[in-house]
């Protein structure tokens, strides 16, 4: 990261927007984000509402990286992207998949499982329906750490039975790093060689190394904002020696550009990325949202460098957040900035 701009510079030309979502996600029906405009382009600061200053500081570092340092040069200009299936009843699966365009082009589907209030039968029915409708797509299940150890053993084995070789991996079947390591060891002992991905267990830069050291997962799901920017995230992936799936945190199309920049930067990209989340938003801040076409996203490149798309003033106005809620975002940015400034000061 270049030197940290002061708060007033970060807030100059910024906007806060609230975008309606098509389906409830993380218990929310709208996604709020702060858009920042720096010399290198537009950036997004959008830590989830419950995140405090320490956690939000990494998200601000990532926004400064995008808007003030720049998103860097791409190694590839097209990134394969998975479709995402929320925890809907099997009967709604076809309707959700329609948003992703031509079925044959979808490289993989991430299927939400272990939703509170639902059963493993619901998960299996949903996965079966996706498998039936998309006979060529890779399948992955995401439990968001929602199972106990015993539930996870049973669920992973049942999903593996249903999906067979098409099951690419199961994402965060249990919470934490150590429990993942214990689960993965037991699955291997039982002869269930399903790949395990760590997602929620990877939130700080040191986490991927611990995941790798403990043998907790076969691959890691990485998001740019919690790792503090594209450069930092790319370094973390390299250091871990694990395959990575670049994912987004329900970003606007401005924030998605940073995820695409990371996916475009990695040497090896064996799995489709989780960057298709703009399809879950009912509105965006740009005229042409970064929604996958034919199962892939084009990396937005200008003069050989990745640059976020420019927000459309009309759309920003339409979804603008003002008043007390805007003040709340300014305050979040200030407190995250104070954390970053403290770190910078301590380091110099
Ligand atoms: Mg996940």
TrEMBL record:
InterPro entries xrefs: Enolase-like_C_sf, Enolase_C-like, Mandelate_racemase_C, OSB_synthase_MenC1
Record keywords, A-Z: Lyase, Magnesium, Menaquinone biosynthesis, Metal-binding
Enzyme's top EC category: lyase
SUPFAM superfamilies hit by this protein: Enolase C-terminal domain-like
Mandelate racemase/muconate lactonizing enzyme C-terminal domain span: 90-190
Signal peptide: none
Tagged with keyword DNA repair: no
One Pfam family of this chain: MR_MLE_C
Reactions it catalyzes: (1R,6R)-6-hydroxy-2-succinyl-cyclohexa-2,4-diene-1-carboxylate = 2-succinylbenzoate + H2O
Positions of Mg(2+) binding: 142, 171, 199
Catalytic residue positions: 112, 223
Pathway annotation: Quinol/quinone metabolism; menaquinone biosynthesis; Quinol/quinone metabolism; 1,4-dihydroxy-2-naphthoate biosynthesis; 1,4-dihydroxy-2-naphthoate from chorismate: step 4/7
Biological role stated in the UniProt entry: Converts 2-succinyl-6-hydroxy-2,4-cyclohexadiene-1-carboxylate (SHCHC) to 2-succinylbenzoate (OSB).
Name of the molecule in the record: o-succinylbenzoate synthase
Gene this chain is encoded by: menC
